[in-house]
């Protein structure tokens, strides 16, 4: 029996084969939680080349891997920027699973054309990143919190941020701004939901070995980045996932409104 037996987790943004969402979903499932995962609905033909070669199918495959661990699982398509879509997903999850005890906000706009100086950043791209990273987290938290309050048994909301949210590095203005805002949003949620037994926390990873940063393997960029980390290595998706699992378990019912940095000692 796991610590999360009987719990239902909604993991938003669990599409990539080498991503945080998949690792989090599988870790929660191993600890006994039934899991609903969401993806954007992109066809596999639009996935990265390595995933296409392996026949990766995105969120539905993550759900199947969770089910293979002996829990109930379900995958659905979700546009986190649409309040109507989020409400429908919450209703679908409650209908399939009976309740929602855990929300993991992991949807993040893909790294790419935003990594430029602010004066060169496209206005519409700025708005889109704000929509996905920040508004999406707000909408999911808002409507899942309503469901949790109605259930009357408490719950856990964990939002995935980044050390960029406290650093504001060059060429990351849109991304870093949204991640920093998640910390403030989570503080407000923690204060508002504490009386209902619902915790709200942030996990802020540092340099994690996922598909999101594969571009940094070119040349000596990877090794140069490792030299900035006191532990001299990249973190793993599983290490981040274990931190999320801990925040959703019975030992942390008095831990709320916090940001946990999983970054090998960079943020001190």
Question: Which descriptors would you attach to this protein?
Answer:
alpha/beta; seven-stranded parallel sheet; single chain; Rossmann fold; 268 residues
Topology:
Blueprint: E1 8-12, H1 20-30, E2 34-39, H2 49-53, H3 59-67, E3 73-77, H4 83-97, E4 102-105, H5 123-151, E5 155-160, H6 164-167, H7 173-193, E6 198-205, H8 221-226, H9 237-248, E7 259-262
Parallel strand pairs: 1-2, 1-4, 2-3, 4-5, 5-6, 6-7
Helix pairs in contact: 1-3, 1-9, 4-5, 5-7
Verbal overview:
The structure is a single chain. With 268 residues, this protein is α/β, with parallel strands linked by helices. It has one domain: NAD(P)-binding Rossmann-like Domain (Rossmann fold), CATH 3.40.50. It is built from 9 helices and 7 strands, in the order βαβααβαβαβααβααβ. The chain has a 7-stranded parallel beta sheet with strand order 3-2-1-4-5-6-7, sandwiched between helices. The longest helix has 29 residues. It is globular.
By CATH reckoning, the class would read Alpha Beta
For this structure, the quaternary state is single chain
Total strand segments? 7
How far is it from the N-terminal to the C-terminal residue, by CA? Answer: 36 Å
Estimate the strand proportion: 5-15%
Helicity range: 40-55%
- Structurally, how many domains make up the residues? 1
Mean pLDDT: 94
Secondary-structure element order, N to C: EHEHHEHEHEHHEHHE
Give the helix/strand class. alpha/beta
Overall shape: it is globular
Looking at the overall shape, the CATH architecture is: 3-Layer(aba) Sandwich
CATH-assigned homologous superfamily: NAD(P)-binding Rossmann-like Domain
Uncertain regions: pLDDT < 50 for 5+ in a row? none
Q: Looking at CATH, which topology would you report? A: Rossmann fold
Query: What's the helix count?
Result: 9
Radius of gyration: 18 Å
> Biggest sheet: strands side by side, in what order?
3-2-1-4-5-6-7
Strand count, sense and closure of the main sheet?
7 strands, parallel
């Amino acid at each position: 029996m796991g610590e999360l037996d009987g719990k239902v987790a909604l993991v938003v943004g669990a599409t990539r084969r080498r991503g945080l969402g998949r690792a989090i979903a599988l870790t929660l499932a191993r600890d006994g939680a039934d899991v609903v995962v969401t993806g954007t609905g992109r066809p596999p033909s639009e996935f990265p080349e390595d995933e296409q070669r392996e026949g990766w199918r995105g969120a539905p495959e993550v759900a199947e891997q969770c089910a293979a661990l002996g829990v109930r699982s379900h995958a659905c398509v979700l546009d986190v920027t649409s309040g109507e879509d989020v409400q429908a997903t919450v209703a679908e999850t409650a209908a399939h699973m009976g309740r929602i005890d855990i929300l993991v906000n992991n949807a993040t706009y893909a790294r790419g054309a935003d990594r430029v100086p602010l004066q060169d950043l496209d206005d519409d791209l700025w708005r889109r990143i704000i929509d996905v990273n920040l508004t999406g987290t707000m909408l999911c938290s808002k409507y899942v919190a309503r469901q949790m309050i109605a259930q009357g048994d408490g719950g856990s909301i964990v939002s995935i941020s980044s050390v960029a949210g406290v650093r504001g590095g060059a060429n990351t203005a849109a991304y870093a701004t949204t991640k920093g805002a998640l910390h403030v949003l989570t503080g407000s949620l923690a204060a508002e939901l504490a009386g209902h037994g619902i915790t709200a926390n942030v996990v802020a990873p540092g340099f994690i070995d996922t598909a999101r940063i594969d571009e940094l393997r070119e040349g000596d960029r990877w090794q140069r980045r490792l030299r900035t980390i006191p532990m001299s290595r990249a973190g793993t998706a599983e290490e981040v996932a274990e931190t999320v699992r801990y925040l959703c378990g019975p030992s942390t019912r008095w831990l709320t409104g916090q940001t946990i940095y999983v970054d090998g000692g960079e943020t001190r």
